[in-house]
């Protein structure tokens, strides 16, 4: 035991600080961008609120895809669970917005537990297919349970009470937007802590090599499941935010299409950084909004071209491109 | 007494007929799926590309065939050949320009690229051909019902089954028994050694891609009676194709065949017995199969 | 990263901020599926709007009218609300119109009061939408409205037993319920009611069930497009038709834009609906001419166009009544009880429900002299209200 | 004979092919055992059976007197049965410091914690530093593993294993793939392993085996054919026949 017992190292490693500084800058940038959005686009707040809800979904997806290496095309299950839970609670008289957000988060976490339990059985392509099957089943179940969910007509008639009893969710959507922005920043900071925690490192390790992690004496499946639950919590917040701000929950919120969109946004922005999730959502939704306003009939081609262009110009996603610009010397080795 | 017994027999006959009838429907649907999907199984299993744009190429073929038969008055068989040739001709430059960049890329990058291609194809099709359904009129021989004794079946369904069998056998022979098949498998196993052995791997990839697209085209045209051609085809059935191929085990011809037949049977039977829960059956079967065979029915270990 | 994002934001502002209102222009925001799987219906909205403006001018009482289209490819209430909010707040539209899907309409109605903006629905066909806001007017139809007369007519034509087969979603269930009620009230019997998933590709097992049910006719409802085509094909191919089982459906199934694809297989199908492109009247002739020009090829013309056309008529009347001032309540009150002759026949806005009262026609798919399929109107049920709203 | 690690009559067959037959090994504290044998003798299978990657068909594995045969691989690691890999299994995007820190935290049951920082415990940091220092990895502690030399990666494998404070350490070819110039560093690291630790090493490099091992077991075709002192191995005719002869031949030809 001599190796371990020795306590006076010859050389001492300096403290780590660069990453923390970068993250502080990043969080401030997100908050500043959000506030800027509030003043620059006062008439587009509903759209921006939707963007925030989807950014939360993309962030949640990044936890699973980017930090655990689990590809999923069914992540909307977690988002939809949050949206429907908040929606159903609201229709049944629970109108306090923060409570609704909490209900959504818990429902999302529960859905994450179910989804994770099933998906962790398989690997690779089979896992992807499981995720698709699960989202289709949930979609179908939500359609069937129309007495509770409104089925394909959507769950309407949500009248959310004012935030803190003061701020109404009105036409201009200021309350919803600011609530969303605060949630986003808080969640982002929380996630930055989580991915930098021992647990976050462990998950990164599992992503690269589960056998190595087992040989280190750590269980793989329970940790991945834990990440699924956290991911569900975040997606559930996103879903509840969407439900509160639009006052309607539709089947689209628990669909394959939404799952695929979220994955596209995330990969577009770059996986495994958390920033990529936000950047990807802004680019995808912003681009879609602009081109579909310019030409509502044939904008899809332009979105396709954008995706192809990103793969060619920045295979690591847009934030990967940014990373290369930020430190041209440092990260050349990533492949 | 006799009448009761007679009634019982009649009852059993009807139920047997129903079982046969459902089996025939299931077989036809499964085979149609197989023809469309097998090309995707090749690209995913042998070339390791998750080509979500597979359906887009099947759709292009459908448009070509529809145009050829309806507007140019060309015969059905010639139209099929024309559609295959046309689709392959469109796909080769795309392979050179786009797909070649994503061989060996992470799956998610491939997903992004091929979804992008799908969006473009949909947008362009919508622009030039409009959003309406396009049919491919069948020749008289295929549009008549054929009497099988206990029921009549559209001749086209029998044709699809025959096509499926031919494709399965032909492809198996091609990959297992021909010189090109050997090269293809060698390239897949280890591209750099194959290259050292003098195999032109780029050419092998291009040809394999062209074959996969040709199969997509064939499936798109022949299967159009089941999956009608319209611009949204490429996205509408993307999930079905992906699921079927993965359940079978990417790259395995018998795997894809079994998956199509099993899922076709589950789908058809489920929709007969309890249509209101039709999708539940299909996806529950998918989950069950993947649960038991985490690599797909006949998928190879990593 | 900050720089990049701000650059993006600035670019966005540049692109989005260019539309500025001139004082004398009244803007109308139209939301519809202009791309995606339902793009054809969106195109029909546009054709209806453009046909109306071509025939009635682009200004009302000296106020210029400007249309802003916003794409909503599939049912997506969150997106719908965001688009409506943006149209109201940013683009300053005075009227909202369009909306193809029910949940999308449901997402917009809570905004109307605060926005002081009426919504004229060109399509979304669930009865309940009208109860969610007093500022909604609808110029389309409801599934119950178009389906109910079919129940009686089926019984009168000697059909006693029917199997109902619908897609398992809101409109499908509405259709099933409405038909069953009307048919059983007339004395018939619905022997079986099957609801199948929306994304069914192969209908042969359903056809087997229809055969097994020994019904005289099948009542069907599916979303238009590929599913309808597959269903009608299976009806012909599997011998259900040859076995003498009649086909009854609301007219959504045989909409004109699908008829070329349905081909000979559709001939003889019986449907009930509020509008056929072939409707024989001078108003319709003018309309079809203008709308066909707007949409490019006349084969793509279908029922959403007439919903949009009449919707524009209502909006023009609203502008007239308010003289260009934004007053949603006054505008809606002005059109309550309004009657006019639409391309589909005589229509009126029911002052109670704000839904359109109109004729429903029984039609049969037939071939014209040139061999083209069309919906031939063979019977008229005059002045039908929405039974879904009449009896809540 | 009771030791810290005892394997009794371990057998495993894949279909009809027996890959391990009746293998019994006992190790005491401080043991230095080398497991050698020609390619395909079943050495790595043996490690996989012992560490729980594979289930044996029969036989028992005792660790400190406790039967661990039915435990999963993770639980065995937690009880002190630790292995390294023949081909390095490391996270190319992480640094050696991160690898060892993660391992130490995991050993202390803190690796799954969400609400704590990765680098904030000075005791852990001190232990990590001394481990890295002992294996000569301090100067590359903050480099990404993908960028450091292969020999250093092999050393990191050992550092990770040691960070788990094992009772029994299984080294699967610690010098495999390491260039000649870097082997002395590996040897040095092996020499300085804690004396009380029981070490089982699989190795092809006979020089390393003779220098390191106090006891040698020879495996051929899944069976133990020799067990004894290193000095006796070369003299044993069975071993010469089954292994050393062909091995020497192979070397001459190579």
From TrEMBL, chain C:
Record-linked InterPro entries: BCAA_transport, Leu-bd, Leu_Ile_Val-bd, Peripla_BP_I
N-terminal signal peptide: 1-23
Top-rank taxon: Bacteria
Domain Leucine-binding protein span(s) in chain numbering: 25-368
Keyword Nucleotide-binding included in the entry's annotation: no
Keywords: Amino-acid transport, Signal, Transport
GO biological process, one term: amino acid transport
Family the UniProt entry places it in: Belongs to the leucine-binding protein family.
Protein name: ABC transporter substrate-binding protein
Species annotation: Microvirga brassicacearum
TrEMBL record, chain D:
UniProt entry keywords in alphabetical sequence: ATP-binding, Nucleotide-binding, Transport
CDD domains (UniProt xref): ABC_Mj1267_LivG_branched (cd03219)
Gene Ontology molecular-function annotations: ATP binding; ATP hydrolysis activity
Keyword presence, Membrane: no
Domain ABC transporter positions: 5-246
GO terms under cellular component: plasma membrane
Pfam families: ABC_tran, BCA_ABC_TP_C
Family, as annotated: Belongs to the ABC transporter superfamily.
PANTHER family, per database record: ABC TRANSPORTER ATP-BINDING PROTEIN (PTHR45772:SF2), CONSERVED COMPONENT OF ABC TRANSPORTER FOR NATURAL AMINO ACIDS-RELATED (PTHR45772)
Protein name (record): ABC transporter ATP-binding protein
Organism: Microvirga brassicacearum
């Amino acid at each position: 035991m001599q190796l371990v017992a020795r306590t006076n190292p010859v050389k001492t490693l300096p403290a780590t600080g660069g990453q923390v500084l970068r993250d502080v800058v990043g969080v401030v940038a997100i908050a500043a961008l959000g506030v800027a959005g509030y003043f620059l686009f006062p008439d587009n707040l509903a759209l921006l609120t939707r963007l925030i809800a989807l950014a939360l979904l993309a962030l949640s997806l990044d936890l699973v895809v980017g930090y655990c290496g689990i590809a999923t095309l069914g992540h909307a299950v977690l988002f939809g669970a949050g949206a429907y839970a908040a929606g159903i609670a609201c229709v049944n008289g629970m109108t306090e917005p923060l409570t609704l957000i909490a209900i959504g988060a818990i429902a999302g976490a529960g859905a994450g537990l179910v989804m994770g339990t099933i998906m962790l059985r398989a690997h690779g392509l089979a896992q992807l297919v499981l995720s698709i099957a699960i989202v289709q089943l949930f979609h179908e179940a939500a359609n069937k349970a129309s007495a509770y969910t409104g089925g394909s007509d959507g769950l309407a008639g949500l009248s959310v009470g004012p935030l803190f009893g003061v701020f109404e969710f009105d036409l201009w959507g200021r309350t919803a937007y600011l609530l969303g922005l605060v949630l986003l920043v808080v969640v982002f900071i929380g996630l930055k802590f989580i991915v930098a925690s021992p647990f976050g490192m462990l998950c990164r390790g599992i992503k690269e090599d589960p056998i190595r992690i087992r040989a280190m004496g750590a269980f793989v499946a329970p940790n991945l499941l834990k990440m699924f639950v956290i991911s569900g919590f975040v997606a559930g917040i996103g879903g509840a935010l969407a439900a509160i701000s639009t006052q309607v929950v539709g089947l689209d919120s628990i669909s394959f299409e939404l799952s695929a969109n979220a994955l596209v946004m995330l990969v577009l922005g770059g996986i495994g950084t958390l920033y990529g999730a936000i950047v990807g959502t802004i680019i995808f939704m912003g681009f879609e909004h602009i081109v579909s306003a310019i030409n509502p009939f044939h904008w899809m081609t332009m979105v396709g071209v954008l995706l192809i262009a990103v793969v060619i110009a920045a295979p690591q996603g847009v934030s990967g491109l940014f990373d290369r610009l930020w430190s041209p010397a440092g990260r050349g080795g990533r492949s | 007494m006799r009448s009761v017994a007679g009634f019982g027999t009649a009852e059993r006959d009807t139920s047997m007929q129903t079982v046969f009838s459902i089996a025939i429907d299931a077989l036809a649907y499964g085979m149609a799926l197989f023809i469309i999907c097998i090309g995707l199984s090749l690209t995913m299993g042998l070339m390791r590309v998750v080509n979500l744009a597979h359906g887009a190429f099947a759709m292009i073929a459908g448009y070509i065939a529809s145009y050829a038969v309806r507007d140019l008055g060309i015969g059905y068989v010639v139209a099929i050949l024309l559609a295959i040739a046309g689709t392959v001709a469109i796909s080769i430059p795309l392979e050179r320009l786009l797909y070649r960049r994503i061989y060996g890329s992470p799956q998610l990058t491939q997903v992004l690229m091929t979804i992008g291609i799908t969006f473009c194809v949909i947008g362009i099709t919508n622009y030039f051909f409009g959003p309406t359904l396009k049919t491919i009129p069948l020749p008289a021989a295929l549009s008549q019902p054929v009497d099988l004794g206990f029921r009549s079946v559209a001749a086209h369904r029998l044709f699809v089954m025959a096509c499926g069998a031919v494709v399965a056998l032909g492809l198996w022979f091609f990959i297992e028994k021909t010189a090109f098949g050997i090269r293809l498998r060698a390239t897949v196993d280890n591209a750099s050694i194959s290259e050292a052995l003098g195999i032109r791997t780029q050419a092998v990839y291009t040809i394999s891609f062209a074959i996969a697209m040709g199969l997509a085209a064939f499936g798109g045209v022949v299967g159009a009676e089941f999956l009608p051609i319209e611009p949204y085809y490429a996205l509408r059935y993307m999930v079905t194709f992906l699921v079927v191929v993965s359940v079978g085990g990417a790259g395995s011809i018998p795997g894809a065949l079994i998956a199509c037949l099993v899922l076709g049977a589950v789908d058809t039977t489920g929709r007969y017995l309890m249509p209101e829960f039709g999708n539940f059956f299909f996806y529950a079967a998918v989950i069950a199969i993947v649960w038991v065979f985490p690599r797909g029915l006949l998928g190879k270990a990593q | 990263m900050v720089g990049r994002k701000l650059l993006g934001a600035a670019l966005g502002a540049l692109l989005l901020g260019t539309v500025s209102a001139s004082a004398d222009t009244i803007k109308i925001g139209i939301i519809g599926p202009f791309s995606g799987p339902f793009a054809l219906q969106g195109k029909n909205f546009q054709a209806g709007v453009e046909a109306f403006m071509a025939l009635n001018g682009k200004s009302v009482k000296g106020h210029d009218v400007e249309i802003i289209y916003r794409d909503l490819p599939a049912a997506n209430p969150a997106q719908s609300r965001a688009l409506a909010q943006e149209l109201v707040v940013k683009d300053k539209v005075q009227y909202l119109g369009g909306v193809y899907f029910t949940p999308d309409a449901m997402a917009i109605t809570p905004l109307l009061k605060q926005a002081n903006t009426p919504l004229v629905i060109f399509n979304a066909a669930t009865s309940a939408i009208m109860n969610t806001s007093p500022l909604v007017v609808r110029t389309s139809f409801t599934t119950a409205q178009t389906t109910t007369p079919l129940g009686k007519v089926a019984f009168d034509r000697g059909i006693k037993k029917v199997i109902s087969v619908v897609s398992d979603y809101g409109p499908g269930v509405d259709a099933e319920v409405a038909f069953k009620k009307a048919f059983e009230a007339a004395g018939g019997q619905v022997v079986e009611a099957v609801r199948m998933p929306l994304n069914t590709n192969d209908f042969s097992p359903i056809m087997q069930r229809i055969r097994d049910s020994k019904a005289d006719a099948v009542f069907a409802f599916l979303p238009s497009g590929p599913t309808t085509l597959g269903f009608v094909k299976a009806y012909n191919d599997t011998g259900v038709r040859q076995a003498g089982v009649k086909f009854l459906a609301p007219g959504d199934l045989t909409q004109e834009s699908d008829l070329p694809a349905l081909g000979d297989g559709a001939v003889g199908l019986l449907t009930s609906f509020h509008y056929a492109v072939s409707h024989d009247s001078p108003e319709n002739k003018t309309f079809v001419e203008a709308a066909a020009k707007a949409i490019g090829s006349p084969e793509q013309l279908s029922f959403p166009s007439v919903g949009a056309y009449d919707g524009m008529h209502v909006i023009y009347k609203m502008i007239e009544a308010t003289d260009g001032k934004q007053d949603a309540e006054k505008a809606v009150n002005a059109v309550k009880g309004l009657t006019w002759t639409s391309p589909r026949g005589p229509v009126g806005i029911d002052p109670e429900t704000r839904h359109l009262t109109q004729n429903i026609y029984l039609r049969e798919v037939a071939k014209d002299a040139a061999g083209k399929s069309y919906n031939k109107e063979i019977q008229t049920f005059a002045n039908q209200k929405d039974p879904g709203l009449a009896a809540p | 004979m009771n030791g810290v690690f005892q394997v009794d009559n371990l057998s495993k067959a894949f279909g009809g092919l027996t890959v391990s037959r009746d293998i019994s090994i006992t190790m005491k504290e401080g043991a230095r055992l080398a497991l050698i044998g020609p390619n395909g003798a079943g050495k790595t299978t043996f490690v996989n059976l012992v560490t729980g990657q594979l289930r044996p068909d029969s036989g028992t594995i005792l660790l400190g007197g406790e039967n661990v045969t039915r435990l999963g691989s993770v639980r065995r690691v937690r009880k002190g049965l630790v292995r390294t890999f023949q081909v390095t299994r490391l996270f190319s995007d992480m640094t050696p410091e991160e690898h060892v820190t993660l391992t130490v935290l995991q050993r202390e049951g803190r690796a799954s914690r969400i609400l704590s920082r990765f680098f904030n415990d000075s005791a852990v940091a001190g232990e990590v530093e001394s481990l890295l220092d002992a294996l000569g990895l301090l100067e590359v502690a903050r480099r990404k593993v993908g960028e450091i030399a292969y020999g250093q990666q092999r050393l990191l494998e050992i550092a990770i294993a040691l960070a788990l404070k094992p009772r029994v350490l299984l080294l699967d070819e610690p010098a495999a793939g390491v260039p000649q110039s870097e082997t002395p560093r590996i040897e040095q690291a092996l020499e300085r392993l804690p004396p009380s630790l029981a070490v089982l090493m699989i190795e092809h490099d006979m020089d390393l085996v003779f220098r390191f091992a106090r006891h040698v077991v020879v495996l051929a075709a899944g069976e133990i054919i020799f067990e004894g002192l290193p000095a006796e191995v070369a003299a044993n005719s069975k071993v010469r026949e089954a292994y050393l002869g062909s091995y020497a031949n192979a070397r001459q030809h190579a």
